[in-house]
DNA sequence: GAAAAGAATACAACCCAGTTGCATTCCACA
DNA sequence: TGTGGAATGCAACTGGGTTGTATTCTTTTC
């Protein structure tokens, strides 16, 4: 994605496109997997942790990213890919690899209708499967 | 549940039934909901946090309790109700109330078969629905 | 029944992800 | 070009979880 596109996208979302915000959005876009705060810290050595955090918080408010907890209880950030992705209806499942500590999107697994007990009202869901990813399974098998 | 039953249960699980361990197990048994470390801290003022933690760790190893993260990324402890509850096959969904910060078991909602992508191997699952519980919804409606 | 060995516990300190206060810098607009 | 508000960096804090270690308790052995 071009710098111009990123700028335009931020503006469309009502966010002033500062250098840092462009940087964070670009990094998230270029990553094929969700990232946590420390992932971004390691990637963006020019930015302070608190600045990254505030950008991510803003992005969340403007529904540019959404979050979920991986298997360790650590927040992961992921770009919203459509206007509706943040809604309950099309939330998706994440996979957390206990070997390499990375999170993956399981876009292809649909979450079935869940019939909650009387009185419970759902706002969001967080479905995480923990295990080992293909790469790590391969490595483990070779040993 | 009687003290004797608790003692016997611990012994059956290969755990020496010390006063603290009996206390923790009793507290968990008497709670109708999963508890986190600080819940137990507040309840068991005679016990140190680290002691509770070590008892819970031991209970986990002996499959007396299992854990899951609630919506805040905080570990919750819950008694294993059968010999198989800790397996992937009969894991269940939890509900986290964002209003009162309590976790609930949704025993009655079965988790459907999940077809993972090639190469991924699941060890455990953690499905949490966030929202508001019946009690809080009632309160909110009255306002 | 006392001493020795080992397990359980309390206390204190630490780790780390997340968060906040505040001073400084940047930038748009007058 | 000066000014006000937004954005940022730095430092410090919070809270859940965890660990090292000294002390206490329990069990074993003689």
Question: Structurally, how many domains make up the residues of chain A?
Answer: 1
Please, what is the CATH homologous superfamily of chain A?
Winged helix-like DNA-binding domain superfamily/Winged helix DNA-binding domain
Class inferred from helices and paired strands of chain A:
alpha+beta
What strand line-up does the widest sheet of chain A have? 1-3-2
- What do the pLDDT scores of chain A average to? 88
CATH class of chain A: Mainly Alpha
> Architecture of chain A, CATH level 2?
Orthogonal Bundle
Short descriptors:
homodimer; 143 residues; alpha+beta; Arc Repressor Mutant, subunit A; 3-stranded mixed beta sheet; 36% helix; 23% strand; DNA-binding
Could you explain the architecture of this structure?
The structure is a homodimer of 143-residue chains. In chain A, a hairpin with a 5-residue loop joins strand 2 (65-69) and strand 3. Chain A has five helices and six strands, in the order ααβααβββββα. With 143 residues, chain A is an alpha+beta fold. Chain A binds chain B through residues 69, 71, 73-75, 93, 95, 98, 104, 106, 108-109, 112, 114-135, 137-138, and chain B through 69, 71, 73-75, 93, 95, 98, 104, 106, 108-109, 112, 114-135, 137-138. Strand 6 (121-132) of chain A pairs antiparallel with strand 6 of chain B. Chain A binds a DNA duplex (30 and 30 nucleotides) through helix 4.
């Amino acid at each position: 994605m071009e710098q111009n596109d990123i700028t335009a996208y931020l503006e469309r979302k009502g966010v002033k496109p500062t250098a840092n915000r462009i940087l964070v959005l670009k990094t998230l876009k270029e990553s094929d997997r969700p990232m946590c705060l420390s992932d971004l810290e390691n990637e963006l050595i020019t930015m302070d942790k608190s600045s990254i955090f505030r950008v991510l918080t803003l992005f969340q408010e403007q529904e540019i990213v959404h979050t979920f907890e991986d298997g360790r209880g650590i927040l992961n950030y992921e770009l919203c890919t459509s206007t509706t992705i943040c809604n309950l209806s099309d939330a998706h499942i994440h996979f957390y690899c206990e070997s390499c500590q990375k999170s993956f999107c399981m876009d292809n697994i649909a979450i079935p209708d869940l019939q909650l007990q009387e009185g419970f009202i759902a706002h969001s869901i967080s479905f995480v499967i923990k295990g080992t990813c293909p790469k790590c399974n391969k490595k483990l098998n070779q040993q």
